[in-house]
From TrEMBL:
It comes from Mailhella massiliensis. InterPro entries: PEP_util_C, Pyruvate_phosphate_dikinase, Pyrv/PenolPyrv_kinase-like_dom, Pyrv_kinase-like_dom_sf. Keywords: Pyruvate, Transferase. Pfam families: PEP-utilizers_C (PF02896). Catalyzes the reversible phosphorylation of pyruvate and phosphate. GO terms for molecular function: pyruvate, phosphate dikinase activity. The lineage of its organism: Bacteria, Pseudomonadati, Thermodesulfobacteriota, Desulfovibrionia, Desulfovibrionales. This is Pyruvate, phosphate dikinase. The keyword Transferase applies.
Amino acid sequence: LLVETTELRVRGDSPELLKEKEHLLAQVEKLHEVNPMLGHRGCRLGITYPEVYEMQMYAIFNAASRLARDGYTPRPEIEIPLTISLAEMAMLKERCDRIAKECMEAHKVTFPYLCGSMIELPRAALLAGEIAEAAEFFSFGTNDLTQTCFGFSRDDAEGKFLPIYINQHILKDNPFAVLDRKGVGRLMQIAIEEGRKTRPDLMIGICGEHGGDPSSVEFCHQAGLDLVSCSPYRIPIARLAAAQAALKYPRKK
């Protein structure tokens, strides 16, 4: 019955619907990539296909506007991933501001919001001072930053050569589990320093698996980060590690 129903539905498609399906299939084939990890994703997709990000921004700001209309105080934060330049960030920040304004005017409300950048690539870390001219906060995507800093594929390295590297003491730890302070950490420190030169009140955090690792949380505290995020199951570990780091390395008020 399922087969017959499917055949009838396909056989009953109008020429316009068939043409649309063919167009969608052509787009899928066009977007196929040999190495999507370094390909057409993140803000690159939002720039080449503006409707993707605009749809998401409208959804967020419409929801926030309805909450504000009902008496709540939403504080949405729009995070632009995989940025490499001020030009990218400024373009998408302008789009974000325009959509936020349109939604607030439509609902006759106002509320605070931020538009920031994910720092996931070495170039972004090195040019953080420029990116901070448009970005209102940073969030280090440490999974991708580790991949691009080491040139390791997380999906492949962990099951192939990383155990050998650790056993032979080439690496002390799996860099996808414990933040690499010498390389990835150095890029983070550059980004923090340069970003806050441009925007002293820049809020900075990390997201990814490292947010639940005690050693990584300690480094983030020492580096001056404001927050970490991690999976729900690792929140107790992260909170304990943050408390221990605060006692061990108290910050100046």
